[in-house]
Amino acid sequence: MLLVFLLFATPAAAQTTAGILGNTGLWKVVTPDALEPGKVSASAWYDRIHRNPGDLTASTTGFSAAVGIGRRFELGTAFEANKRVLVGQQDQLSFGQQALGFFGNKTPGSLPLPGELMPGSSLLPQLRSPATPNGSLTGAAGYYNLLPFAGLVHEGDGIGLVTAAVKWNILSQTRGAPVGFAVRGHFDVPVRKGIDYLLTHPVGTADLQYGFDGILGRNFGDVAGVYLNAGYRHINQPVHVSVIQLADEAPISVGWNVPRTSRIQFVGETTAEIFIGSRTPNTTFGPEDPVDVALGLRFEVVPKFIVSAGYRPKNGFVINAGFRQ
Predict the structure, then answer these.
(1) Which of 33-42, 182-191, 200-209, 280-289 has the lowest mean pLDDT?
(2) What is the homologous superfamily of the domain 2-93+142-324 according to CATH?
(3) CB 3.0–4.6 Å: which of 77, 98, 255, 298 could bond 269 by disulfide?
(4) Among candidates 145, 153, 273, 272, which has minimal Cα distance to 202?
(5) Which contiguous run of DSSP H or E holds residue 80?
C-alpha cells in the first residue's frame, strides 16, 4: 500500500509527450501549453481502430516529435511508418464487391461496366443489394471516408501520412490565465498518391489534408486536467477527381488525466469524426460519424520517460512510449 501511495503521490517531472498528432498531449488529444524554448519530446506509438462499412481494422505504427520555439510556439511532426488495413466484410464495400465478382463479367476483380459505376466516377462501383452478383444497384457506394480504397484486397499495408503542425499557445494557467488556450494548424501529406497503389495498399485518401484546431484546457491543481479539441480538416479529393468525392471532417475530442502530476495517471479520451459537406453517396454499416473512447494509464517509468496505454472497447487500443527533455 505504501508503494502504491508513493507512486501516485510522487510528482512527475514530465506531464505530456508528443502524441499521435505530433504535438504534445495525451494520445489524440492535444494539450494547450507548448514546450519550453529548445525543449524536445519524441515518441513511438501503435494505434488500432475499427471502422465501418467493411468491418475495417486499421493498425498504425508511427513516430512523433515536438520542439518548443520561442515562448508560445511548438512545432510538431508525425510519421505513419506503417499502416495495415484488414477488411472483415468485403461485401459492404464497393471495391470489395468488385473483388468478389459482382460486376463486369462477374469474375473476381472484374472491372464494372459503365452503368454499374457511381454517377460521375470513372472507377467506383455502386453497391449491390442484396450483396450478390445479381443484387440491384443501389445508387450509393460503400466506403469509409478516410480509407476509401479499401476492399479490393483483403489486407494491405504501406506508409501513411507525414504530418507537420504548429501549436500557438495564447493563454496559459502558468501565466495566470483562468484556462489554457491554443490554436493548432497542420498539414498531412500522403507519401504514396497513386490510385493503382492505393487499391492494393489502401492506407489513405490519395491527396493532401490540412486543417486547424482550437485547444482548450483547464488544470484543477494537481488533481486533474481536462482538455477539449475542436476543429476543421479539409480532405483534398484524390488526384484523379473523377474517382470519388470525399467529405471534409470536423473532429472533436475530450481528454483528461487524473491525478495530473503523479507518476501514475488515469487517462481517458473521447474522439469523434464528424464528416461534413458534399460527398459521394455512401451506404453505412455502423455509425457514419465514428466515436472512440479510450481508457488507460500513463506511467513515468523513469524521470522524463513515459509509457501510456489505452483500451477502446470494441474499437481497438493505443500505446505510446516517449520522452520529454
Answers:
(1) 280-289
(2) monomeric porin ompg (2.40.160.40)
(3) 255
(4) 153
(5) strand 73-87
* Domain range annotation of the chain: 2-93+142-324
Which ranges in the chain belong to alpha helices (H)? 2-9, 94-100, 195-200
pTM over 0.85: yes
What pLDDT is recorded for position 286? 63
Whole-number Å distance between alpha carbons of 41 and 136 = 54
Please report, to the nearest 10 degrees, the dihedral formed by the alpha carbons of residues 84, 158, 323, 35 taken in order.
-110
Beta carbons of 107 and 95 less than 8 angstroms apart: no
Per residue in 92-146, pLDDT tens? 999 999 999 999 999 999 999 999 999 989 999 999 999 999 999 999 999 999 9
Average pLDDT over residues 199-224: 96
**Sign of the alpha-carbon dihedral angle for 259, 261, 267, 273:** positive
